[in-house]
Structures are given as structure tokens and as C-alpha cells.
Design brief:
The protein is α/β, with parallel strands linked by helices. The chain has three domains: 2-80 and 290-318, no CATH class; 101-159, Dna Ligase, domain 1, CATH 3.30.1490; 170-287, D-amino Acid Aminotransferase, Chain A, domain 1. The protein contains eight helices and 13 strands. It has helices at 31-34, 55-70, 85-94, 135-147, 205-217, 221-231, 267-287, 301-311; strands at 2-6, 26-30, 39-40, 44-47, 74-76, 102-104, 116-120, 155-159, 170-178, 181-190, 235-243, 246-253, 296-297. Strands 2-1-4-5 form a four-stranded parallel sheet. Strands 10-9-11-12 form a four-stranded antiparallel sheet. Strands 6-8-7 form a three-stranded antiparallel sheet, with helices on both faces. Strand 9 and strand 10 (181-190) form a beta hairpin. The chain is globular, with a radius of gyration of 21 Å.
């Protein structure tokens, strides 16, 4: 059995996974449930959604990670060591994987680093500005976001690093890490530089043939493995592009949507998705833990105190 711990509002990202043909038994638990349990079944545990958790919930997740590991469970993603968006991008640049840099909203951008854009350090809301070409535009954009209610520490400045696949066509590639196995998935194609959800009809037959070849051959496996290692993420999805022949990693999401494609105008797109899906299921089976009779009892005093507080209606996770 594999149990995913996710934010209570985002269980739907993996909603279709338990029903996948050939998949092991899978359960999706909210962190509210996870933090209220005193004993846990034998299973593989996957922790996710750290960028949606409060600092206290991240600490509780890390304590639970350690308690389950001590009890003999296989556990993926330690909330105490996973690098979240800003630190992850800084580390990837430091280690030479990414050519682009990021800055906090209160920092100045070097003159040679424009254009840039704004986004938030947590959540998954996409870009928060157009491309900005000088410090004045950055300062005004940061102030506008801050005035709208975005905390200044949440605002980050990202150096632009993208390249057209064809005129007015951009592609965002993606690949999962599932316990050390890199599993490429289908791409997003957009008629704009900020590729996130895709533009219907943007891609054609040749693009989908190329996508199938990339998923089949997995040519970026080594660099993606290194990126996940640096980020200390053992389950998640990396979103990346190819710029001047080099992988540029934009995001690693610890609760990526595993969407389903059941029909498409181009059969090759369906072939690509089914190829991904088969490998995804195989990777899940590789990390699966057979169910056993002996449960794992939680003895961490902080988690035990949290059980008591939750039982008494004390929402200390939001105030500790």
C-alpha cells in the first residue's frame, strides 16, 4: 500500500491514481487526518504539498516522517530537508544546472539579468507579471503585488529563460521522480512564454511525434536525477524547458496533478500519455510496501500533544 499525505484542499490532484489499472493499493490522506492518527498501517508514505503548509505543519510532517521511518516504513520527502521554490532554484543555479537566477522581492536585479518576471514563492498561481525590462518596472510590480495583499517575503523575481519551439509556440516539458525512477510525462504547449496550462490546438503532428520520442528515450534522465537530488525530493514532478540545448528547471512540484487523457485529436498524444502512465504505474509498484498486521505506533511527544490539542479543538498548528 502507498499512502499520500496532501493538503486537504488538494487531494484531487491524485484522485484518479487509486483506480489506475495495475497500480498497488493507494490511499490519499489529508494532513489533518495524518496529524490526528496515533497508529499507522504498514505502507509506503509519500509526503507532499510543502509549499501549501504552514511552517508548523511542515515541522509536524517532518516529525511524522521520522516516526514512520523509525517504525520501519518507507518514506519519501522529508519536510525538514526538502528545498522549496526559492531555495531550490537558487541551489540549482549554484550547482550549475540552471543558468537563470532568482531574487527576493526586496532585492535589486543586476542590470545584465533582465528581462525578469514576478511570481510567488509558494502556491501554484503561475507568473504574477509580464516580462519586466528594468529595475523601475520591477519595483513598481513588487509594490503593486504587495499592495494587493501579497506579503513581501512571498514575492520573488525570476530571470527569464525560455525559447520558442517554433514561432509563437513554447513547450514546457515534465518528468516525475518516483523513488529514484525518472518518468517523463506529456508536455504543455502554449502560444506564449508563460507555459502553464496549454493552448488548445497550439501543437501539431510533428510536435507530438517529437514528444513521443522524448518520453520514449528519456534523454534528460541524468540531469533531472541530479536536480531532484539537490532539491531532496524523492516524489514529485519537475517542469523544465530546453534553452540553447540545455535543460532549465522551472519548478519541482511535490503534489503534481496526475491528469487523465482519454481522447485527443492526435493519436500520437494518446500513445505518449499511455506510455507515461504504464511507466508511472510500474514505478509506483516498485516503491510499494506489502500490507502487514503490525501497525506503527507514534511516540513523538510533539505529535502526541498535537493529537490532544486537535481533540480539544485547539488549532495550535496555526499558532505554534
Amino acid at each position: 500500500m502507498i499512502i499520500f499525505f496532501l493538503h486537504p484542499s488538494k487531494l484531487k490532484t491524485h484522485g484518479g491514481v487509486p483506480a489506475l489499472e495495475g497500480a498497488p493499493k493507494i490511499e490519499l490522506w489529508s494532513y489533518d487526518r495524518a496529524f490526528s492518527e496515533k497508529s499507522f498501517p504498514r505502507a509506503t508514505y509519500v509526503f507532499g504539498d510543502f509549499d501549501r503548509l504552514s511552517p508548523w505543519d511542515c515541522e509536524l510532517s517532518a516529525r511524522l516522517y521520522r516516526a514512520l521511518k523509525k517504525g520501519g516504513a518507507r518514506v519519501l520527502n522529508d519536510g525538514a530537508s526538502v528545498k522549496q521554490r526559492f531555495d531550490m532554484l537558487r541551489a540549482l543555479h549554484h550547482h550549475g544546472l540552471n543558468s537563470f537566477q532568482v531574487w527576493r522581492g526586496a532585492q535589486r536585479v543586476p542590470e545584465t539579468s533582465f528581462p525578469v518576471f514576478l511570481r510567488t514563492a509558494s502556491m501554484h498561481r503561475g507568473v504574477a507579471s509580464d516580462l519586466l525590462h528594468d529595475q523601475t518596472a520591477v519595483t513598481e510590480g513588487v509594490r503593486a503585488l504587495n499592495r494587493s495583499g501579497v506579503p513581501i517575503h512571498e514575492i520573488m523575481i525570476v530571470q527569464y529563460a525560455a525559447e520558442e519551439l517554433a514561432p509563437n509556440l513554447y513547450r514546457k516539458l515534465a518528468a516525475f521522480n518516483i523513488g529514484g525512477q525518472i518518468v517523463p510525462t506529456v508536455s504543455v504547449h502554449e502560444n506564449g512564454w508563460a507555459a502553464k496550462s496549454g493552448t488548445l490546438g497550439a501543437a501539431g503532428a510533428q510536435v507530438y511525434d517529437d514528444e513521443y520520442a522524448l518520453i520514449s528515450s528519456n534523454p534528460h534522465q541524468a540531469v533531472l536525477s541530479r536536480a531532484f537530488e539537490i532539491a531532496r525530493i524523492h516524489y514529485g514532478r519537475a517542469d523544465f524547458g530546453i534553452v540553447r540545448g540545455k535543460v532549465e528547471i522551472y519548478e519541482i512540484n511535490t503534489n503534481p496533478t496526475v491528469g487523465m487523457i482519454v481522447q485527443h485529436d492526435f493519436p500520437r498524444r494518446l500513445e505518449s500519455f499511455n506510455l507515461f502512465l504504464g511507466r508511472y504505474v510500474a514505478a509506483l509498484n516498485a516503491i510499494d510496501t506489502p500490507e502487514g498486521r503490525r501497525a506503527i505506533e507514534i511516540s513523538d511527544p510533539v505529535l502526541i500533544r498535537q493529537h490532544r490539542n486537535d481533540g480539544e479543538g485547539v488549532r495550535s498548528r496555526w499558532s505554534a
